[in-house]
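The authors assume throughout that readers already know how a fold can be written as discrete tokens. For illustration, here is how one protein appears when written out as sequence plus structure tokens:
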Amino acid sequence: MKKYLLFTVLTVLLLSANSSAGTADFSDTCATLSLIGPDADPGEGYSIEATGKVNSGYSYYAWFYIDGVYNSYSYSFFSTSFTRKYGPFTGPHTFKVTIQGGGAMNLCKRSVELTVAPKKKDPKEMAADICTAIGSLPDSSFKNNPSQRKNAFCEKTDEVIQLIEYAANSTDPVVQDQFYQDAIEKLQNDIGAKMDSFTGGEKNNDWVTDEKAQESVYGNVQKLIKELQDLQ
């Protein structure tokens, strides 16, 4: 199940605004706007609820955008407020709603944005997940001594977690980089290199020999390496 973390960005002029996880809010003397997104774990689909009210005039016009592209239009000549739901959506998107009052002449226009972005896993969780994934592999996936191999892999992931903790607890950027580099090399040499023949690696070095099993775990090792490189 994919997880998403929500960030809010307000695009208005001369405005004061409040925002919180899953919601982007705005209010001034011109208008009140709100975009409500999914919870932190929206699953495979989610909806966006938009509400707005113009504080003058006798009608409203509202435009809804997805990733900067116009999506739909709402209006009423007899109301100054609206509530609309949009969706379902999957994956990351930036949503925007713009409202404008109407009367004898066009009144002020205001906008609010909400971005739904993938939630990043903690690197320590990613390392622990690698241990769990290896532990769940069938014994037949290993060259020999599957129980010993599984334990040895998990000892290595524990060492990776410890190095990540050392890096996170250090205030010295040079020391942090070294701890992250040590963790990366351990992932590359002590874990990844023992299950990479399906990518062209040395087959004699592999502890995990089943190709499907290699594919199921190796990608997670590479994702964690990339995550740690980004922290350097």
